[in-house]
Amino acid sequence: MAIQNYAFKSIGSFLQDNTYYIPDYQREYSWEESQVEDFWNDLKTLREYNEEEHFFGQIVVQDEKEEKTSKKFIIDGQQRSITSVIFLSALSEVCNSLDEQGCFEAQEIVEDIKIKYIGRWSPNNDRLQLRIANSDNEFFRAFVQTRSTVAPDVQPLTKAQKRIEKSYKYLLNQLNSEIEGLNPDESFLIINEYYKSFINGFKVMYVETTSLEEAFIIFESLNARGRGLETSDLLKNHLFKVSKAQIDTVKRKWESMVNNLDGNDATRFIRYYWNSREEFVRTQNLYKRMKNQINSPGESLKIVTHLDKLAPVYNSISQKDGVTVFNSEKLNETIKNLKVFGASSYYPIVLAMYNKDWDEEHMLKVLGQIEILIFRNIIIASNVANKYEVLFAGWARGIANDELGVTDIVNRINKEKISDEEFSSYMERLVIKNKPIIRYIFSKINSLYSSGETIISTSENVHIEHIMPVNLSDEWSIEEETHQENLWKLGNLTLLGKEYNKKIQNKGFSTKKQMYKDSEISITRQLLNYEDWDVSTIEQRQSGLREDAMRIW
């Protein structure tokens, strides 16, 4: 590993040694008041107990060399670095106030901070020590770094800018409260102690490497318990690097994609997208594969354009609830059913179809068959789901390359389905405890018999009813072993809506039939056709449900 510099050093030494850049792919300033409060309490403890040092954390830096120049990018530690500069700026403001009150020694600290740790700035000469990423940089420069020379009248617009402002004001208030009621000279002694304690006593483990990938590995090793950089962060940096003249457009589309994802995992989404058009790849190899294949501004722009277009689609198929991009009620219902299955292996197919502008009727034909395939093979037959991730990705690639159409995909799906004989056999003896799946099955079967009835398959208001109950009352004469063997058989289950009555859930069958009589659900009312309820009637009903399932799936 190409570590070219590592040292245990003071925060003052770190800030003074170089000019540092925070890459665009890094998270915005995210410290909340509780974290800034911890920072202050650590510093206060260090000063009050006259301790020698406090370990502030690690700083991982990538030294990126280009020809004869180099830039040092902070890969881990950007939050600490920004907070350090905020604190020094707040302390500098307190010293300016003391200077105005006649304590001229305080001005030495102001100059010390400006020259060594924050740096100077003018429109023609930028010598600031820390450059943060994206649109927050201008606010940070005006509100924090050049506060003593530029009127701090800028208004925070983004969440990060508001956090910067809040952190600054919190630390300024803490410093001022420490010297409240003291004369300028007494105040200076305390402020100077805080200054020295921070600059000399806060220690960091500094690690510097020339490779971004190695910096990432170091970061993960040192910070295993923290939220590490995502593959999407690294990919964003690479896309920005190769975009050159297209950088503004690429950035805008990337930010739009992130906003459209609405908190969804960007790395997962990008991997599903990549697998919808390229050779299948696992998450751990995604960045390497994409970095090797995306090397021009045009390729970078094409990728982010696709990602921006598809992010709302990914939300529609991956989030439990939310706004959908699809107009077809049947298509949305099919996607909802696939969510009940917990299925995600089909995502690349949806992304490929949408990216190729397939109409919703054709998408429904494909997804309707995928619903049946997953229900038969994975939900009922318990086939391993992993194989379908690779299989579906291959089909998606065929769609992306205009090699496979609707009929081709449907034919391939039909070849993968377990046979009718196998499916029938599984349904005949099905034991199932997954409540959303139970609701799904009975909702589908009920639709064969209902005329205008409404049933919500995933609603918590639709209860799973054990006809032979979980807890047997004296009205049931059945061995416990037989009871357990049959309790979760499909034939012993049904659905109840608002007619559900907890008071009679364990009663005998004749009593429970009075509740079933009032049900709005056809398959539940059908139970009135049975005189009694035992193992033979459970098997009889299960056989009938199997026949219904053969008609549907």
Task: Give structural attributes.
553 residues; alpha/beta; 58% helix; GmrSD_N; DUF262 domain-containing protein; GmrSD_C
The number of distinct β-strands equals 10
**What is Rg?**
32 Å
What is the count of structural domains?
4
Poorly predicted sequence stretches spanning 5 or more consecutive residues: 224-228
What structural class results from the helix and strand content? alpha/beta
Percentage of residues in strands: 5-15%
What is the general shape? elongated
State the oligomer: single chain
Average of the residue pLDDT scores:
90
In spatial order, strands of the major sheet run 1-8-3-4-2-7
| Percentage of residues in helical conformation | 55-70%
**Main sheet?**
6 strands, mixed
Distance between the termini: 55 Å
In DSSP terms (H or I, runs of 4 or more residues), the helix count works out at 24
Organism: Bhargavaea cecembensis
Protein name: DUF262 domain-containing protein
Describe what you observe in this structure.
- The chain is of the alpha/beta class and 553 residues long.
- The chain has four domains: 3-222, no CATH class; 238-325, no CATH class; 331-418, no CATH class; 426-552, no CATH class.
- The protein is built from 24 helices and ten strands.
- A hairpin with a 2-residue loop joins β5 and β6.
- It starts with a strand and ends with a helix.
- Pfam families: GmrSD_C (PF07510), GmrSD_N (PF03235).
